Amino acid sequence: MRIALIMTTYNRPDALDVVLDSIKNQTILPDEILIADDGSGNDTTNAIEHWKEDSTIGSKIRHIWQPDEGFRPGAIRNKAIAKSTCDYIIMIDGDMMLHPKFIEDHKKVIRKGYVVNGCRVRLDEKLTNKICATHKHKNINIMTRGILKDRIKCIRFRPLSKLFLDNFKPHSYYGIGCNMAFWRNDAIAVNGFDETFTGWGHEDSDFLFRLSRIGVKKCDLRFAAVQYHLYHTQRGNGSDNHIILKNRNSEGIIKAIKGIDQYLD
């Protein structure tokens, strides 16, 4: 089994550098790293080209780019999944700095018939700026100043994580795309992400709900696969997309109206 790490990005080369540095320091490296670029300019391209020269992860990096036509995470994720040659996908955002055991933790919970949704630790602007300037990020813990909320999510403790998973019962298919893992074939079976969701929000929950309709169970990962969300201003509240999500759920739609099939051979 081969594992791909897909990370979305848009005009944030400083955060991209930090995230790629955290990928380089993983105890287990992914087999390929696909940077799903939603229309960034030359600064991002130059940063990626620099990382391609790195002896550790450079050969694994592939840059998947689309023109800047507004916020289109569904489209660029579909294009990256279509380009992937791996069986299993771990998906993050380009402002999610990873704990060194992030990939290792995800690999330990891989199961057929499941999609995994993790969580994130939100950092404030001051700490984010310091990390981007210095790349000193290896000692963030529950006591670190600059964590905005949910400090408990800093805790990585495998026995507690296993206990949680063994006793977990799915209760909701709402979720976040910045820490998600799934089988590539399952994504293709529901036609990937629905690109008719435009702007910020809920295209990831729609994906999870449609997976549930083909029998894929959602597994919430806690106390493992820790990631740190570098600060940015809020992109919107997603209220319009939430209405669309509720309507799609009432209709019981399984396959994305506009999805990954347009990019597959």
Keywords for this structure?
alpha/beta; 11 strands; 265 residues; single chain; 7-stranded mixed β-sheet; 34% helix; Spore Coat Polysaccharide Biosynthesis Protein SpsA, Chain A; 4-stranded mixed β-sheet
Low-confidence stretches: none
Distance N to C terminus: 22 Å
Strand % is: 15-25%
Element-level helix/strand string: EHEHEHEEHEEHEHEHHEEH
Q: Specify the biggest β-sheet.
A: 7 strands, mixed
Average pLDDT works out at 91
Categorize the overall geometry: globular
CATH class annotation:
Alpha Beta
According to CATH, the homologous superfamily is Spore Coat Polysaccharide Biosynthesis Protein SpsA, Chain A
Count of domain modules: 1
CATH architecture: Alpha-Beta Complex
Question: In words, what does this structure look like?
Answer:
- Keywords: Transferase.
- Residues 172-232 form the Galactosyltransferase C-terminal domain.
- This is Glycosyltransferase.
- Pfam families: Glyco_transf_7C, Glycos_transf_2.
- Residues 5-155 form the Glycosyltransferase 2-like domain.
- The chain is of the alpha/beta class and 265 residues long.
- The chain has a single domain (3-263), classed as Spore Coat Polysaccharide Biosynthesis Protein SpsA, Chain A (Alpha-Beta Complex).
- It contains nine helices and eleven strands.
- The chain has helices at 13-24, 42-52, 73-83, 102-108, 125-134, 158-166, 184-189, 203-212, 239-251; strands at 3-9, 32-37, 61-65, 88-93, 96-98, 114-117, 121-123, 147-149, 179-183, 217-220, 227-229.
- It has a seven-stranded mixed β-sheet with strand order 3-2-1-4-9-6-10, with helices on both faces. It has a four-stranded mixed β-sheet with strand order 5-11-7-8.
- Helix 1 runs parallel beside helix 2 (42-52) and helix 8 runs parallel beside helix 9.
- The chain is globular and about 50 Å long.
